[in-house]
Design a protein that fits this description.
Blueprint lengths: L20 E8 L2 E8 L4 H8 L18 E4 L2 E4 L12 E3 L12 H8 L9 H16 L22 H7 L10 H11 L2
Parallel strand pairs: 1-5
Antiparallel strand pairs: 1-2, 3-4, 3-5
């Protein structure tokens, strides 16, 4: 029987770079964090397992549920599909980086006011996705349900319930809090 060699995770320092590890810096929530990780480490695992930022959740680990959604350079992404080493130089925002001290982000406040959650597992991804979606609509990016010609006009895409539902369709909620999620986003939408 083969024995497995385990690395003591309580070591004070990171192991040195090697053929399968790199040292790089991630800019997360306004701070630079230097890491030495296996090249195959996903951004989600780097956030959760190496940086202690557990807001983004590991749901499906296949980019299908949206529980791991974070913002990379202002765009919403499934962090389970991105390699951490490829994000060097990008500005990453997680749910932990949205509040300003004790003051919640307006989307976080709206989710609380509307009771737009039940178990809360998907909520960080929902909120990060909503923030990215609001920026996309403000930039005039159309969705499948955007009225033809709206985006061509060059202005923001108006957000009604159908538009919000379509744009948030990549974020699943097993509890079914969708009506309240849409209401919370409508409360914050321009």
């Amino acid at each position: 029987m083969d024995t497995i060699a385990w690395r003591d995770v309580t070591d004070a320092g990171e192991p040195p770079p090697s053929d399968d590890r790199s040292t790089f810096t991630l800019h997360i929530n306004g701070s630079d964090r230097k890491l030495t990780l296996d090249h195959r480490t996903t951004l989600l695992d780097a956030l959760r397992e190496h940086l202690g930022l557990t807001g983004a959740k590991k749901g499906c680990d296949h980019g299908q549920c949206g529980a791991c959604t974070v913002l990379v350079d202002g765009r919403r992404v499934n962090s389970c599909l991105l390699l951490a080493v490829a994000q060097e130089g990008a500005h990453i925002t997680t749910i932990e980086g949205l509040a300003d001290g004790d003051r919640l982000h307006p989307l976080q406040e709206a989710f609380l006011e509307r009771d737009a959650l039940q178990c809360g597992y998907c909520t960080p991804g929902q909120i990060c996705s909503a923030l990215g979606m609001l920026d996309e609509a403000a930039d005039g990016s159309p969705s499948y349900v955007t009225e033809p010609g709206t985006a061509a006009a060059g202005g923001p895409v108006p957000l009604d319930a159908a538009e919000i539902r379509e744009r948030m369709s990549g974020n699943l909620c097993r509890c079914g809090a969708y009506p309240r999620i849409v209401e919370a986003i409508e409360d914050v939408a321009p």
